Amino acid sequence: MKETILAIAGKPGLYKLVSRGKNNLIVEALDATHRRQPAFGTDRITSLGDVAMYSETDDVPLTQILESMKQLEGGKKASVDPKKATADELHDYFTKVLPEWDRDRVKNSHIQKLILWYNILIEAGITDFVDAEEEEAKEETEQ
To answer: How far is CA 71 from CA 39, 66, 75, 99, in A?
Structure first.
């Protein structure tokens, strides 16, 4: 999941990597349209595996945050509407997901985007956010 789900700056939503061309990538929207389009080297393309959020101690990979959201929501869409929620509601919700998040560097728009991305992934049927090797490593460090 980490390398094949992409965010493209300036374009809403998330995209799945379908193929690689000579000078571009072919991506498919993870929304209901499933529209395919090229993404060029001039586009700022980021894999979800490369994204992390600030916390008080260390940056937390987005995959772990998405997994925490899945545990909190029971595998369903987020209970908070990111477009209608107030700042306090977003902060309260994100505190349940990541208690030690950095309140100075994480903005409301970051939390909104995270919730939108989580909902897109759930609707697309993508729920394996953490790889098996990552899960084993995390369990070993907790013991």
So the answer is: 33, 9, 7, 14
Q: Which amino acid is at 139?
A: E
- Amino acid making up residue 67: E
CB of 83 within 8 A of CB of 121? no
pLDDT digits (tens, 9 = 90+) for 78-100: 999 999 999 999 999 999 999 99
* 13, 30 Cβ separation under 8 angstroms: yes
What residues are paired with 45 via a beta bridge? 8
What would the pLDDT profile of 20-66 be if each residue is shown by its tens digit?
A: 988 899 999 998 888 999 999 889 999 998 999 999 989 999 999 99
**Token couple for 109:** 């728009």
Spatial CB neighbours of 30, under 8 Å, sequence gap ≥ 6: 5, 13, 14, 15, 16, 120, 121, 123, 124, 126
The residues facing 139 across adjacent strands are none
Helix (H, G, I), strand (E, B) or coil at 110: helix
> Smallest Cα–Cα separation from 1: which of 104, 136, 122, 90?
122
Mean of the pLDDT values across residues 88-113? 94
